[in-house]
Amino acid sequence: MFRRIRTGDIVIAVLVLLPLVIAWPGSRLLPGAGAGAVLGAWGQLAGVLGLSALLVGAMLSVRLPGLDRWFGGLPRIWTLHRMLGFSAFLLIMLHVVLLALGALPVSPEMAATVLFPPLDDGAVWIGWGALVLMVIFLAPTFQFFGRPHYQRWKRLHLLSVPAFLLAFMHVVMLVEHAALWWALVIPALGAVLWRKVLSPRLGRHDYTVEAVTALASNVVEITLAPRGRPMTYEAGQFMYLTPHDPDLKAGRGEEHPYTIASAPGEDALRVGIKALGDASRALQTVTPGTAVQIEGPYGQFFERREPQRRQLWFGGGVGITPFVSGARTLKREPGSGPDVTLIYLANRPERAYYMEELREIAQGHPHFDAQIHYFQERGPVDEAFIRSHCPDLEEREIYICGPPGMVDHLMGLLTRAGISRGRIHTEAFDFL
Ligand SMILES: Cc1cc2nc3c(=O)[nH]c(=O)nc-3n(C[C@H](O)[C@H](O)[C@H](O)COP(=O)(O)OP(=O)(O)OC[C@H]3O[C@@H](n4cnc5c(N)ncnc54)[C@H](O)[C@@H]3O)c2cc1C
């Protein structure tokens, strides 16, 4: 995922490191400054870096269609967001430990006072408040207590806002360069404000459920018609869908990500949805005619550095949806583009949701071939099967979307077969 440095990565690195450069303690880190002074200075730097990582992480929660391209897609932004959150937590813990160790050469009482000063020393206690909130909102993310319920986790995650505001107050009460911290905290707050308050009102498109078509048990394709400004998108992108059907048993008003299965330029927008939990199960019986809102598009799964290179697609289970969009796009542009081979990895025939349509498209398109592999019949897919349908494997750009186990299996198999990782692009339907 991080094989290539993107423009967004550079912006993030500058924003995170800038406070460090400005707050650099200079002479306190020189040899001869004394162990206590050096430890104290490193402690301060850890705090500075921890807070800048926390604020930049908050900025990355913004979710603006188009902006994610600077980072290589929204899933990659989330990975960065998690990495920054995790680093912020470790650095802030280190900040506390190093400050105490820095005071230890004076006396153990001094070390204790640095950490726990008299109650009227508000700045330090405000810092403790920020740290306690961080522990509460980050613990479920790191799955200390097992896999959290997604919606509850999301609500708990809102504690990050008071956490970073308290950490901000702590730092402006204690150090110089307040203007710098204001310059970081304002965009961080703006990002959360956009995401939670403004985007649901200004950033979404209104659609109506036109039809719900069963593809298999627990899998439907929902067709959506625009009620106003339609969303423009590319094959392989995804969106957030918020249904408002008053009869829905679960998930009403909740946003969930789904890959767009229709082709760009179609009048209607289509999504294939498998029941994987409460909200997606309820959507199987969403009422036609009811309103939904969509936000996006996000991602750039089919981003290509060499558009003329032949492609090999692997879709597993409901992870076939970006390739359905890709195949429907090819159907609208017959005769164009490089050769594409799709290998659909399904458990058994009833779980190969779009296979009939994909075969039909392949029959009518000179550059598209669709093959199926049934796990129940043949076990895990192997190199011989892939090569029998795609002998020029090494020459292709490879795209994989499906359950994490399938993605890992294919990544191992392809890299062992000598395919460079830079040629392999993956998308997982799981963000936590
Ligand atoms: C980029 C992307 C594209 C996807 N495309 C499709 C698709 O085309 N078809 C399809 O059937 N499914 C798709 N999914 C999966 C779909 O989003 C989840 O199945 C759905 O959100 C589950 O919600 P639930 O309440 O039914 O289940 P839950 O039991 O609440 O969730 C099951 C798991 O889904 C994930 N999840 C739940 N809600 C969200 C959310 N709002 N944001 C991110 N992850 C969440 C969590 O990892 C959670 O543990 C996609 C997911 C992602 C990340």
Rg to the nearest angstrom? 26 Å
Anisotropy-based shape: elongated
CATH architecture designation of the largest domain: Up-down Bundle
- Regions with pLDDT < 50 over 5+ consecutive residues? none
How far is it from the N-terminal to the C-terminal residue, by CA?
16 Å
Beta-strand residue fraction: 15-25%
Task: Kindly identify the CATH topology of the largest domain.
Answer: Four Helix Bundle (Hemerythrin (Met), subunit A)
Structural class: alpha/beta
What's the CATH class of the largest domain, please? Mainly Alpha
Overall pLDDT, averaged?
92
Helix fraction, binned, reads 40-55%
Number of helices: 14
Small molecules (ligands, ions, cofactors) in the structure: flavin-adenine dinucleotide
Number of domains: 3
Number of strands: 11
Strands ordered across the widest β-sheet: 4-3-6-1-2-5
Largest sheet: 6 strands, antiparallel
SSE run? HHHHHHHHEEEEEHEEHEHEHHEHE
Keywords: Membrane, Transmembrane, Transmembrane helix
Membrane topology: Multi-pass membrane protein
Transmembrane segments: 39-62, 83-104, 124-144, 156-173, 179-198
Organism: Thioalkalivibrio denitrificans
Give a short summary of the structure:
It contains 14 helices and eleven strands. The protein has helices at 7-22, 35-59, 74-103, 108-115, 122-138, 150-157, 160-174, 178-202, 278-282, 321-332, 355-364, 375-378, 383-389, 404-416; strands at residues 205-216, 219-226, 238-243, 256-259, 269-274, 291-298, 311-316, 340-346, 368-374, 397-401, 424-427.
